[in-house]
Known about the structure:
Blueprint: H1 8-36, H2 47-59, H3 62-72, E1 73-75, H4 77-95, H5 108-142, H6 150-157, H7 164-167, E2 168-170
Antiparallel strand pairs: 1-2
Helix pairs in contact: 1-2, 1-3, 1-5, 4-5, 5-6
Amino acid sequence: MQTVAMSPAAVEALTRMGQMLIQMQVLEKLVSLSLTFPLRDVGVKTLDALFAAEAKNKKATIGRLIVALKSRVDLDDDFATMLDRFLDYRNTFVHDLDRMGGFDWQSDSGIARMHDFLDTLASDTEFISKAFTSLLVEWTSANGVHPEGTQSVRDILGDLDGIATSIFFPKPVKGTP
C-alpha cells in the first residue's frame, strides 16, 4: 500500500472529522433518550411499552428522531433552525462530502473549507447536545432522581443549565385554546 503525504492542516481536519463523528453519535443517543423518557409518546403507559419505545428509538435515524421530536413538542424557532442545519450538515458529513462544495484535500483553501464546515457542525452539535442534556437533567430532577454526578453535568452546561424550558414547549392539547 502506498502512503500519501498529507499536510498538517489535512491531518488536523481528519482528526477533527473523527472527533466529530463521535460527538454526533453521542448527540443521537441524547435525542433517543430524550424521546424515550422526558418527551415520550403519550401512548407509552406501561413498562413494556417504555422498553419497546427505547428499542425503537435506539434503531431510528437522527432524521426520524428529529421528526418525532417536532411532533411531540413545539421548539424555539432558532433551535428548530439549528436542528435542521445540523441534520443537513450531518448528512453531508456522513453521506456525501462532495455536496459541501469547495472542499478538496490538495489545496489550502479546500482544507480551510472543511475546517469552516466542521466549525459550524461542531458548534451546532455542542449546543444541541447541551440542550438535550439540560432536558434530561431537569427531567430527572423533577422526577426525584438525582444521579451521582448531576452537579458536574450542571457545571459543564454552565450558562445553558436550565435552557430546556426555553427550547422545548409542550404542544397544546387538542380542544383547548
